[in-house]
Amino acid sequence: MAGGVAACRRSHDRGCPRFVLAAVALTTASPTGWSMEGLWQWVWSDILVRSAVGLVVGFGVGRLLGRMFFQASWKALRLSEHREGFVALAATFTAYGLTELLHGYGFVAVFVAACTIRNAERGHRYHRVMHAFTDQVERLLTAVILFLVGGFIADGGLAALTWQGAIPGLVLFLLIRPAVGWVVQMRGNATGKEQVVIAVFGIRGIGSFFSLAYALGDADFAAPVRELWAVVTFTVLLSVVLHGVAATPVTAWLDRSARDG
What we know:
- The chain has helices at residues 2-11, 18-29, 36-70, 87-101, 106-120, 126-154, 163-183, 192-201, 207-218, 225-260.
- By secondary structure, the protein is mostly helical.
- The chain folds into two domains: 1-141, no CATH class; 156-261, no CATH class.
């Protein structure tokens, strides 16, 4: 377990998601077993403390940038007046970078900062400008990643996929992700049909490539590396293809149901 804890400690400088750290810790600790002391140290240091740092820094950065965007006395600092969408990236990097320097969880800080900036002036049109810009950046980066994934597949990236590896991918795609997506919406305002569609479609899972790349760089797994990449690529490919084909007819069906209802 000590090795797993050490791996988790090193990871905070790179902002790896906690579930990935748990997998790395499990893998590293498996030869020697777990200890309650090591487990508590990991939970306290890598989850509670660093999440708290991310929460505090994200809130502070969000409050500061929110005042600067909408309430600064100098017009040059009132960035909402300039309608520049790239400021959203600056806010993201500021919250993430500062939190990582303080050994906190950067992803938490970015989320909290975004919510805090939104609450600073909820009805302002500048939020639409920033949202549109970040959405375009996300689409561009997603296209680049999918292009690289296509090249990986064309080069035989799925050759290492076995039926034992395909089963976890299918379970994640068909059962686990829809179930989790439905549970988190139980108290939402969407209709039953909308909740089911949102849960089934979920996300493409492209972030899994980052998580796997980090985990492979920080621990040795029993499964061959090429097989792990094949499993993740297979799962993402299922989502991209099947959801891409089904998105338009399912959306049209929802629209008809809303009109008829």
